[in-house]
Design a protein that fits this description.
single chain; six-stranded parallel beta sheet; alpha/beta
């Protein structure tokens, strides 16, 4: 359990984390790095089982890079976010791939529509690209989720920072816990 290999909490499994977390959490942002067409049935079956035990579906965001795999979750009532990779967005922001910027975001829009996905997720540092090239074309029902690990829950100016991003439905920030998530 964790985000990066260095933060993995001693091989902790999702079910063990849910036991530790307890029943009263509001949202679980589940970043499924390797979700694809080859493993989606297995991942879905396991999360379905965990949902029965922990009531996950209504309070879990399933994030992944493959719209077709995420579509299985979307069709079954899970919140989904198509992950726009930081590398891709950084390359577009740096102008190294300026000719493809429109095509990249057109592809994102197509995946959202084709697979019935709820929204997108991305690194907040690249929000200017999302605002300029994607947000104007998103349906009102589409949710934007972002993260900013440099921001802490204890930052005195956190609310003033957040107010600049009214288009976000979810914002993941750092929270010091037993786990480095």
């Amino acid at each position: 359990m964790g985000h990066d290999p260095q933060s993995l909490a001693g091989g902790l499994h999702l079910e063990e984390y849910l036991e530790w977390l307890g029943p009263d959490f509001d949202l679980l942002w589940l970043d499924v790095k390797n979700l694809n067409q080859e493993n989606v049935d297995e991942v879905f079956a396991r999360l379905y089982w965990l949902d029965k035990k922990y009531r996950l579906r209504s309070r879990t965001l399933v994030e992944g890079s493959f719209g077709s795999a995420l579509g299985i979750f979307a069709k079954n009532g899970w919140s989904t976010a198509l992950f726009m990779t930081t590398d891709d967005l950084s390359r577009l922001a740096a102008g190294r791939d300026a000719a493809n910027i429109g095509g990249y975001f057109a592809g994102i829009l197509q995946q959202l529509k084709t697979h019935g996905l709820e929204g997108v997720s991305y690194d907040l540092m690249l929000d200017h690209l999302v605002r300029g090239f994607l947000l104007p074309f998103l349906p009102q029902s589409c949710k934007c989720s972002a993260w900013r690990h440099a921001w802490k829950y204890t930052d005195a100016d956190l609310l003033s920072k957040i107010k600049h991003y009214p288009h976000l439905s979810r914002l993941l920030i750092a929270l010091d816990t037993l786990f480095d998530l």
